[in-house]
Design goal:
mainly alpha, 96% helix, rod-shaped
């Protein structure tokens, strides 16, 4: 019984770790995609 709950907790932590990793990858990809457009708009404004 005790090992089953520990196993479930371990699996939950493993899933949580992967969710955090995928969230960071998605956030980084979004920043990298929007950054050139941001600089382009800023260059147009300051012209």
């Amino acid at each position: 019984m005790k090992r089953e709950s520990g196993n479930r907790r371990q699996r939950f932590l493993h899933d949580l770790k992967w969710i955090a990793i995928l969230w960071c990858v998605g956030f980084g990809a979004t920043v990298l995609l929007t950054l050139p457009f941001h600089f382009l708009v800023m260059a147009m404004i300051h012209k």
